[in-house]
Design goal:
By secondary structure, this protein is an alpha+beta fold. Helices cover 49% and strands 19% of the residues. It has a three-stranded mixed sheet with strand order 4-3-5. The protein has a two-stranded antiparallel ribbon with strand order 1-2. Strand 1 and strand 2 form a beta hairpin. It is extended, with a radius of gyration of 24 Å. The protein starts with a strand and ends in a 5-residue tail after the last helix. The mean pLDDT is 78.
Length: 186
């Protein structure tokens, strides 16, 4: 992605990671060839318990999302961010094949219908090629976006300085304090 008249560049594709040998942490919870679980050391159990206690439950996440007025502000934020991004061109080739040819046809038909709506709004060129003979999902794409930084900053400021976002932030801080004060029991 080029920014500031080509003066700044950001690569969007992640670098491929080199595969490593399985570590002790990845072996935890696996079973031996005889079906017996591998032994976990006390330190591993403590780390696992500590990691689990740091996670958020679904109820806690739901309480944050259900903050009064937050969903409306999120919709306005997304609309503002979409308005700040202009698609100069976007081309994509997608080859899809499912185990059942009827499912492949149904999926391709749904994608073509959705593609018609998208093409009427944005300048995109997406080719969908169904493969009825084999299970496959391949795709490649390229494009150029134009992002107006000021139009990104304004919706972000409007969102983060709104009362619902501040209430949700206070709720998150309170939940984090409760997590730190809660003793870890083993």
């Amino acid at each position: 992605m080029l920014w500031l008249f080509g003066l700044m560049m950001k690569e969007l594709l992640p670098q491929k990671a080199i595969k490593k040998e399985p570590s002790e942490e990845s072996i935890i919870g696996q079973k031996t060839a005889t079906g017996e679980p591998l032994q976990e050391t006390a330190a591993e159990v403590e780390r696992k318990t500590e990691r689990d206690s740091r996670g958020w439950s679904g109820q806690e996440m739901l309480s944050i999302i259900q903050t009064q007025g937050l969903t409306g502000n999120l919709k306005r934020l997304l609309a503002g961010l979409v308005h700040a991004v202009g698609i100069r061109y976007f081309k994509m080739r997608l080859r899809i094949g499912l185990d059942d040819p009827a499912d492949t046809g149904l999926a391709a038909g749904c994608l073509w219908s959705a593609l018609g709506c998208v093409q009427s709004i944005r300048p995109v060129e997406i080719d969908i090629e169904p493969s009825f003979c084999q299970e496959v999902l391949e795709g490649e794409g390229w494009g150029a976006l134009r992002i107006w930084p000021l139009l990104v900053v304004l919706p972000l400021l409007r969102f983060f300085l709104s009362m619902p976002a501040l209430r949700a932030s206070l709720r998150i801080i309170k939940l984090m304090k409760d997590k730190k004060q809660k003793p870890i029991s083993t």
